[in-house]
Amino acid sequence: MQRKFLLNLALVLVLNLLVKPFYIFGIDAEVQVRAGTAAYGGYAALLSLTFLLNILLDLGITNWNTRNIAQHTHLMRKHLSGIVGARTLLAMLYAVAIFLVAWVLGYRGGQLRLLGILVLNQVLVATILYLRSNIAGSQRFAQDSLMSVLDRVLLIAICAWLLWGRDHAGPFPIEWFAWAQTAAYGATTLVALALVVRHAGGLRPRWDTAFTFSVLRQSFPYALLVLLMSFYYRTDSVMLDRMLPDGDLHAGIYAQGFRFFEALNMLGFLLAGLLLPMYSRMLKQGEDVAPLTGLALRLVLAGSLAVAVFGSFCAKEVMDLRYHEHTDLSAPAFALLAWCFVGVCLSYIFGTLLTAAGDLRALNILAAGGMVLNIGLNLWLIPRSQAHGAALASLITQSAMALAQMVVAVRRHRLRTALGGLRGGAAYVILLLGLAWWLRHAGTPFPAMAALMAAGSLAAMAATGLLPFGQLRALGRLRRDA
């Protein structure tokens, strides 16, 4: 299983690193520049609002389905046919709820029109994720990896023409960006549906009340977990927008740093998407998950700690690479979000294991605490420190959640042997901090510092035993012998 994990992780990382960074920094960031920080900030706040109630689109069905199909692949056709009708009703419920909340929060006119496009996009995204859960659950990881980048490839093509291919370059209305997403998501939905129907052996949509309520009852704990996590992960932009007099501007400033964090978080999300079906099948078959968890932990620490150290020491230079306005304000927020990335990645390992094992009660209790903590911190910090305060609230919340999930997972799944990477991680981060401090105080130019930090990270991985070079060499031999 460790060999399969490494092979598929390499594939999904290569595909996504080729596509998504260009989308985030080439397309998404350029849209913010062309549309303006305030206009993009309003869009970002509305997008965050659609995420807050996103759970109504799914009610935990996707995570439940991934685990269930991984353990009972032969049931794919039955579940697919029965769930299609239920998801249609959930989409309508979601749309009504979003517009009611937006009206209460004071959104009007053009904001509601833009929100309508974003609601449609969220419906399409949720549909894609559900369809991909069938592909990943049936262990077809290569196809799932390709589907994970298809929407972004299409969106890059559409937006590249809108931004640079038109004869008369002019203002870029933010609505164009939203409609481009609709086209890309719609096409990806059709491709994913065709793949799943082929694997399932056909599709006969039906409404079965008993089946629907049975699925919703089983998926409800997953739904509650996603809802609570969405609140402590996505409230920042909405609270910045609503709490401050010039909230759309501050939401846009926060979006500059958050965009880099989200690009990094993409890697952690892909890791979780790979681990969930693997953990689910291993637990079903009674296999020991400690070796896989230990391998994932070492890989995550090796990458996330290097990013955190470099991002915190070079935050201003990183922001200046892409933006020309407000970087003095967004850089401190990004410096904190870079460390937040470490906590999120740890949650993707241990939280995913608890999800695969069905330990939803513990996860929901932790997530509820995280939501209360994050909202309370934002209420206190945002009026005092704006975007920097929102980033600090995220760092505290994500760190606390990662630690709590790790403790619960270790106790319930006998993972003490998997935590050996933590000792190496502690030595590793000390070495990196010392190197970054020395390079910064020596006045090293940014490009040279980036290169030296990369080289130093590899050397520190080898010195601390954090990166499993032996396993990677063994994997290479297996590939040659195969």
Descriptive tags:
482 residues, mainly alpha, 16 helices, globular, disordered C terminus
Structural write-up:
The protein is built from 16 helices and no strands. The chain has 482 residues and is mainly α. It has one domain. Helix 1 (2-35) packs antiparallel against helix 9, helix 2 (37-52) packs across helix 5 and helix 5 packs antiparallel against helix 6 (141-165). The longest helix has 54 residues, at 360-413. The protein is globular. The model is unreliable at 474-482 (pLDDT under 50).
Task: Report the count of strand segments.
Answer: 0
Strand content: under 5%
- Low-pLDDT windows of residues: 474-482
Give the helix level as a range of percent: over 70%
Summarize the structure.
This protein is mainly alpha-helical and about 475 residues long. It is about 85% helix and about 0% strand.
What's the SSE blueprint?
Blueprint: H1 2-35, H2 37-52, H3 61-71, H4 76-104, H5 110-137, H6 141-165, H7 174-200, H8 209-243, H9 247-284, H10 290-313, H11 315-322, H12 327-356, H13 360-413, H14 420-441, H15 446-464, H16 469-481
Helix pairs in contact: 1-2, 1-6, 1-9, 2-5, 2-8, 2-9, 3-5, 3-8, 3-9, 4-5, 5-6, 5-7, 6-7, 8-9, 8-13, 9-12, 9-13, 10-12, 10-14, 11-12, 12-13, 14-15
